[in-house]
């Protein structure tokens, strides 16, 4: 999709709404805002569009009932708030969509779901099935079970990755302001940026990373999510919930990010952006050249050294002997196993790669690409 006028014709859209847009200052859910968003998405659904809603707010919705003074910093309190708030949040969405006889389905992800091949395939299949049945999936990170070491970090990135997973044509990120500005909107002279054709257009801007008192992301996380989505051929719109209805009719609201790349493997993008590396594999120059220049798997003969402790199936970074990063991939051996077979050209299981080409993403100019 190259033009915002085409949003109304999009077959599949992903809409992400943040915690600050769904909660009142007292920490309780903002049912009026939730009803407004539901009404707009109901209209899109009834017009034949498949809608995926990425909804933050589970932790924020648990703050009030637990009597907490604000967003919890400790993981155990964060998880407790998520456990209390998730049911409240889902019940609120369910009640609103039920008014139009629309069924919703809860989909909770962890970053581990996209590292494990079987989990990833199941997630993709589950979302496709829900959409084919006319269900609106409500996606969120499973805050009740995630750890600091293995989490998406913010739902803006989760929304971008979900957009790749379901092959949506457009991602709409809803936030407290009506788009991206040249400076914080509270300052005189701030100007709305109506469209972005390349991320290089934003190099001169200072984009805040500060999120709200109940959320995890600021405008910086939304721009990063837009970059991720656009690089895979998905258009992105950043705007406010109040503008959602106008946005879906193609009106010039918010900030429109044009796609900058072509469709690519969702799995590789998820591996790149959602997973945490557990160790490092250093390869010789021959293997480095092969990995950089053409699609190939990494075999034990090309491994020079192993750093860190990891298990089979973990994500690892692959570096050249000079320290430069080649890419990252899912390792087929544990660090202990790999240490014993590194550099062995006669290894009996030579047909079993260290990193399969389908589980490898290549780095270039400071970024990781497929």
UniProtKB/TrEMBL annotation:
One of its GO terms (cellular component) is cytosol. It catalyses: L-glutamate + ATP = L-glutamyl 5-phosphate + ADP. Gene3D superfamilies: Acetylglutamate kinase-like, PUA domain. It is an enzyme of class 2 (transferase). Catalyzes the transfer of a phosphate group to glutamate to form L-glutamate 5-phosphate. PANTHER family: GLUTAMATE 5-KINASE, ISOPENTENYL PHOSPHATE KINASE. This is Glutamate 5-kinase.
